[in-house]
Input
Amino acid sequence: MCYDFFLSCQASQTKFHSKAFSKFCSLDTLQIPHANSLTSIWFPTLISKVFMLLVQMLNPLMVLMLMCPGAVAVQSEHAFPDIPFKAFNTFVEQNFSSKIMLTTVLMLLFTMTENTDLLNLHQWQQHPQLSDENKVDLSSWIKSLGHEVQKQTTGPKFKTLFKKSETLNLIPDNQVITKVATKLNDLAELLGLNSFDSDGRQIQNLRSISKKEILPILIICPPSNTCSDKKCRGRAILQNSDPNQLAQTTLIKGSEIFKDVVVLSGKCSNCKTHYFPDHENYPQVVGPRKRVYLNNAKYLKIGQSLYVDQVFSNAVINGTYSFHASTAAYAEFWTNSFGKQIH
Output
C-alpha cells in the first residue's frame, strides 16, 4: 500500500530536497559498524537521524505511511458477557441506589467491557505469580478507573452509585475512590471478566470484547412520518412494502457494514405519494411520477442494493477532494481498511 501511495502522489509532493539528501548520504552513522560494536546508544541515534531527515525530504504524511506495517493481525475477541439479567439486576440493587438511571448502569457496564487491558493489569496484581510480589486487592489500576468514573459522572448521578445506607456524605474523600473501585472490581467478577480462577491460576488473558451479540437490528424507513402535501393535513404514512417480500440491502454506517438490512417504503392513502428513505415521488397530471430527493435523508441509496449514511457520504466527498483521489481509488482504500468489518 505504501508503494501504491507513492505512485499516486503528485510530483510536487514527492520532491527531494537535494541538500538534505546529500547530508543523508554522507552520514557517518550509515556506515554500519561490526555487530559486536553496536550499542544501545548508537541504534536509537541512527533511527532518530533517519526519521528527521525523512521528514525534511518527504511529505510528513508519507513518512507516517512508511512507518505503518503493511498488514496488521486482527486480534481475536471475547464474546460479550452473557449472564442472566436477574443476576445483573440483583447486583445493581445490592450495590447502587434505587434511583440509579439506566444511562449510568450502561455507562458502568461498557466501562468494564472496554477496559480489558486495565483489568488484566489489575488482576495480575491481585494474583501475584512471584514470591517477591505483594498481593493487592485493589490495585492502583482499578482505582484510576474509579477516579475517572467519579470525574466524568455528574454530581447527582455519582451519588446514585452509593446506597442510601452507605451515607456518601460521611465517607472520607480518600475512601470514596476505594468504594467505587470495589464496586467496579465486583462488577468485573460478575461479568466473568477474569484472568484467573478461584485458585489463582491464570485461565486466560482478557481480550477485546465483541459487540456482535448486542448490535441493534436496523430497518431503513422514510424519514417523514406524515404526508408533506398540505392538502392531506398531516395524514399518517402507511407502509407500502409487502410484509412477505421485504427488500433487503447492505448498509454502510460510518465505517461499519451491515448486511441484510430491511428497507421499507410508505405511501399516502389520499394523494398517492410514495415515500422512500432518500426520496419521494408523486403522480403528476401528465407524464410519469415526479421524483424529489430529500435533504434530510438519513440514508442515501448509491447502488442497486447499497445504502450509506451521511458520515460515509461526507467522507467520500471530503476524501476525494482533499487527496485528489478518484472514486475508484477511494473505494479501494475504504475496502482495504474497513471492508472486512461486516455485521
Summary: Residues 1-44 have pLDDT under 50 and may be disordered. Residues 85-190 form one domain. Residues 184 and 190 are 10 Å apart (CA to CA). The first helix runs from residue 2 to 8.
